[in-house]
Design a protein that fits this description.
The structure holds 3 protein chains of 3 kinds. By secondary structure, chain A is an alpha/beta fold. Chain A has helices at residues 24-38, 56-59, 64-74, 88-101, 143-158, 162-176, 190-195, 223-229, 257-270, 275-278, 289-298, 307-312, 329-332, 337-353, and strands spanning 6-13, 19-20, 48-52, 79-82, 107-115, 198-201, 203-204, 213-222, 234-243, 281-283, 367-374, 379-386. In chain B, 68% of the residues are buried. The chains are: A alpha/beta, B alpha/beta, C alpha+beta.
């Protein structure tokens, strides 16, 4: 398997906010523009566009990709949207990689946008219809339940405590204080998390990422272009993606097989044999506190049942041995679904280039991994990047 | 670097007005079973799957959730393209070209009959500030385009009606088609006006169905039993969703998409180098507009060519021998799937009564329907 | 060709978005436009879920078995998604099971808060592994007739059904599960 080498050469993003005045298209445009400017490229140098966006119900558009095509730089160009629910953000760099690695295109602008505030009174309503229309929707489930269901099982099997898991929120919200685009950076304590209102036990308010509006974009280029455009290309060395069965009640939710399967594929492609040693920085998907831990186990960055120890030992702090979500993650920066996933990719890009400003992790990291998750607890999307 | 990639297996349920006996799961399962059997593979042989779905047509938020089970894709690389089937086909093509895997599967589905408010759904795809408040039918958008196209190209409403007569008659001999019938030109021209100049019979009706295609790299093709049909060129493009600034005279999206596909296939003179085509004709005028955008006929020449019988099954350049959307139905995201499978069957000589003579290279062209300006093109050949 | 190295700054980011407050939006301080989409569907459920619903109306739970992997699957399906072959036989399973995992929810499906302090019982949905189906084979349903704090993973529960005359062939023909 010989792949054409593909690099990230530019990235840009909007601020993540609860209510943006800008339209979805304007958000996408802002992110794309910043990404192009960051590598001094022009839209005429872009051969193809990949759009990532999660449920159409948020922005309030049927065929949202069509609406986003032109503002994402796709006017009269090959534009294709990809989609795996919450996993879309990281799927999007994979989708862009498919465009460039195929040899069909030399460049691809990848744009992820979500405007959740359009769904009124609350975007949660849009999540009822993720459940099976006949066997589940009549019970009127909400998205929070599936997280609480999974978290409960995860805690039960490993004996994790809520006060341990709460540390993820403390860490990520603190990290986000240093992110200029962050919506919810804050200095909080474990007690604050435990005392925040109960949403759906075991999930409290501060275990949850916010609803957000925002967009993120990256520029991908084939090797010969990348070397011309920048001194510091960040290579897409491994990609993996998968979906588990939609029959989520028949799987043991304590372990994310889907993350492991996707990670194994990405590691194999990147030639990684010992992930916890060869990967220096990680941005696992953290829409809920326990999810960061759940995904670290799936990414095989610690043994099954070993994620809490790693957290308690400070390994995952920004100055720890394996910084995890140095950006501030979804819990701190915000969660405009697909854009949040691509924000993680952009963070790895900036960290590996030494351009993360106050968020920069020490030790000149050489290899990073970003991961996202989605749908009915079934999507794993993983990318390995190196400088 | 460039490998040859072929379609080695196809499966479809055919297209029906309703499919009350099966859910979307069984519908795809049937098409997938046929496609895998046709290619001589099992799902475990597949390296990546691409499904095609839009949330509101499936009626699910994040509809991709329900894609893996019925394809045998559980815990395999699979993702969804909310676009046209030919875009998904292009995505699978890119995955194989990248070297990620040698066999990939593409799926598309229409359960249009389950959607009770299709018109409202399409309105939901338009601008909330400039179009929705006007409370116009989405057919009005097509009618505006038809008016402008006919005026600028010189084609006529009668020539559009001829397309309807031809395609619905072709569908009578296609076992996969549902809307075949024998109409006169007069029937079409005097059908009730929906949105002038569009009459009821100028508009394709919907259909349910599923299509699955198996793609393989040249290396793999040798070891598979399916008869390969090669993807010579593929292209896709979008102009703009804005009604205010789009090109109304011609289908620019299909022009751009076809230029990409022709370049890849090394085609300079499409009319000569391509033998036949399956083209989106959700509205009668779209067949003409698309033929001109594809460069098959010069501007203003498509209507005359249809009148002269060039596009009949027996003609020099058969168009929509399957019956097209007017005869087989509009199938939303599955549009390109219907085109691709009909081309593959023709190229393999398996098209039955409607089999064309000397079908060696065929062109499939899809459109994502009102209000989009997105289209995709695939050029398929026996060699 | 210039080699660029432009770092993202706070100033650049601030310019990208105009952040509004909830007051701005709800208090009509900015111009808003509303659209309530009319989206209606009539699902074809197919033979597997069709039979499942018909049996629910009869007060029974039915599953389907795959002879290759020997899984007895609920909800039933016409094909086994793991072996990827047609399933073989219909199997009645019990209307009782074991709690695999559960939630004590203080919100409804629209993220609206329940009046817990006012005495409203939190919703307690659970994944319930059904007796007679293969291990780990669960369905989503509600638990009731127990103090939410006393629900435990591993707890045995049984279905409480609507009266036969009130059943309509839906998953809600089971009102909830209660400890047994």
């Amino acid at each position: 398997m010989s792949h054409r080498r593909v690099a990230v050469v530019g990235a840009g993003m909007t601020k993540f906010v609860r209510f943006a005045k800008e339209t979805p298209g304007e958000l996408a445009y802002q992110a794309g523009k910043m990404a192009l400017e960051s590598c001094e490229m022009d839209i005429s140098q872009i051969d193809s566009v990949s759009i990532g966006s999660a449920p159409d119900a948020f922005d309030g558009f049927h065929m949202k990709g069509e609406m986003l095509a032109e503002p994402s730089g796709g006017w009269r160009k090959p534009v294709m949207r990809n989609y795996v629910g919450g996993g879309t953000g990281v799927m999007s760099i994979i989708h862009g990689w498919q465009h460039v690695a195929s040899g069909l295109f030399d460049t691809c602008l990848v744009v992820c946008e979500e405007k959740m505030s359009s769904a009124f009174p609350h975007p949660a309503g849009a999540f009822l219809t993720i459940f099976d229309h006949t066997t589940e929707q009549p019970i009127k489930p909400t998205l929070l339940w599936i997280f609480a269901i999974e978290m409960n099982r995860f805690m039960h099997v490993h004996g994790y405590k809520k006060e341990e898991i709460a540390l993820v929120a403390v860490k990520n919200k603190k990290n986000a204080l240093d992110h200029p685009a962050a919506q919810l950076g804050a200095e909080i304590t474990v007690k604050d998390v435990l005392n925040s209102e109960i949403m759906a036990w075991p999930v409290n308010r501060l275990d949850v990422s916010p609803t957000s509006d925002g967009a993120v974009a990256i520029v991908l280029a084939a090797e010969h272009i990348a070397r011309r455009v920048t001194e510091k290309p960040v290579w897409v060395d491994g990609v993996g993606w998968t979906l588990d069965s939609a029959y989520w009640c028949t799987r043991d939710l304590y372990y994310p097989d889907y993350v492991e399967v996707a990670a194994r594929k990405a590691y194999e492609m990147a030639g990684i044999k010992e992930p916890s040693k060869e990967i220096h920085i990680a941005e696992p998907y953290d829409p809920f506190t326990y999810k960061e831990l759940h995904h670290l186990e799936g990414l095989m960055l610690c043994p099954r049942g070993g994620s809490v120890k790693m957290l308690l030992d400070g390994v995952t702090q920004r100055n720890g041995n394996l910084p995890v979500c140095p950006s501030g993650g979804l819990l701190g920066v915000g969660n405009p679904i697909s854009a949040a996933g691509l924000m993680k990719v952009a963070e790895i890009f900036w960290q590996l280039r030494g351009e993360a400003g106050k968020r920069q992790v020490p030790g000149n990291p050489k290899c990073g991994v970003a991961q996202a998750w989605g749908d009915l607890m079934q999507v794993g999307t993983v990318v390995v990047m190196r400088n | 670097m460039v490998k040859r990639v072929a379609i080695v297996g196809v499966g479809t349920t055919g297209f029906r007005a309703t499919t009350p006996d099966v859910s979307y799961r069984e519908l795809t399962y049937e098409a997938a079973t046929k496609a895998y059997l046709n290619a001589g593979i099992e799902p475990k042989d597949v390296g990546a799957f691409v499904s095609t779905a839009e949330d509101f047509t499936e009626g699910y938020s994040i509809a991709d959730e329900y894609s893996p089970d019925q394809l045998g894709a559980v815990l395999k690389p699979i993702h969804t393209v909310p676009g046209d089937f030919i875009q998904s086909l292009a995505n699978a093509y890119m995955i194989i070209q990248s070297g990620f895997c040698d066999i990939a599967v593409v799926q598309g589905l229409s359960k249009a009959s389950n959607m009770l408010t299709k018109s409202d759904m399409i309105t939901f795809a338009t601008c909330p500030f400039t179009w929705r408040p006007l409370k116009e039918s989405h057919h009005a958008i097509a009618a505006m385009e038809m008016n402008r196209f006919l005026q600028s190209s010189g084609n006529t409403r009668e020539q559009c009606a001829k397309v309807v007569v031809k395609n619905r008659r072709n569908a009578l001999n296609n076992p996969r088609a549902v809307h075949g019938t024998n109409l006169s030109l007069d029937d079409v021209l005097h059908s009730e006006i929906v949105s002038h100049p569009l009459g009821r019979l100028d508009i394709a009706q919907y259909a349910d169905g599923a299509v699955v295609c198996v793609l393989a790299s040249e290396e793999k093709v040798q070891s598979l039993k399916g008869e390969p049909i090669w993807i010579k060129g593929i292209g896709w493009a979008t102009e703009t969703s804005a009604l205010e600034s789009r090109t109304w005279d011609e289908a620019v999206y299909l022009k751009v998409a076809s230029q990409m596909a022709y370049k890849m296939a090394g085609i300079r003179s499409p009319r000569k180098e391509i033998d036949f085509a399956e083209i989106n004709d959700e509205y009668s005028y779209k067949e003409l507009q698309h033929l001109e955008a594809l460069g098959i006929f010069a501007k203003g020449e498509s209507g005359k060519s249809v009148e002269a019988g060039l596009t009949e099954i027996t003609g020099e350049f058969p168009v929509n021998a399957s019956g097209g959307n007017l005869g087989c139905g509009a199938t939303l995201e599955l549009d390109g799937g219907h085109k691709v499978i009909e081309i593959v069957l023709q190229l393999r000589g398996q098209a039955g009564t409607n089999q064309l003579k000397n079908a060696r290279t065929g062109l499939a062209a899809s459109w994502r329907g009102v209000p989009t300006t997105t289209g995709a093109v695939a050029i398929l050949a026996k060699e | 060709m210039t080699i660029s190295n432009k770092q993202m700054t706070k100033e650049m980011i601030e310019k990208t978005v105009t952040s509004l407050s909830r007051e701005d939006v709800i208090g009509n301080k900015v111009i808003t436009s509303k659209w309530e989409p009319k989206l209606q569907y009539a699902w074809d459920n197919g033979p597997a879920i069709g039979r499942y619903l018909a049996e629910l109306k009869n007060g029974k739970l039915i599953a389907k078995k795959c002879r290759k992997c020997n899984r007895i699957m609920i909800p039933p399906r016409m094909f086994c998604e793991l072996c990827w072959r047609p399933t073989d036989e219909w199997v009645y399973v019990k209307d009782s099971g074991t709690v695999n995992t559960f939630v004590i929810s203080h919100v409804d499906w629209k993220a609206g808060r329940l009046d817990i302090k006012g005495g409203v019982r939190p919703f307690t949905p659970a994944v319930i592994e059904i007796d007679g189906a293969s291990e780990g084979m669960g369905i989503l349903h509600m638990i009731d007739e127990i103090d939410p704090q006393k629900i435990k993973i591993g707890m045995k529960v049984k279905a409480i059904w609507k009266k036969p005359a009130e059943r309509e062939g839906a998953i809600t023909d089971i009102l909830y599960f209660k400890p047994r």
